[in-house]
Predict the structure.
Amino acid sequence: MAGAHRPRTRRLRERIADDRGSATAEYAVVILAAVAFAGVLVAVMRSGEVQQILTDLVRGALVP
């Protein structure tokens, strides 16, 4: 009876050890994280307070 499970166990181990596609999944996760970060950055940059700080910073750099 124990011998009947060996081919199934071996196939299961082979499928678990197979890492094809893992790099693609990792790239997808990184891209999603970058898009989420960009969305947060856009939301922050649109706030009036941040725009005022940046405007003051640029004006201070341009005016001697």
Notes: The chain has a mean pLDDT of 84.
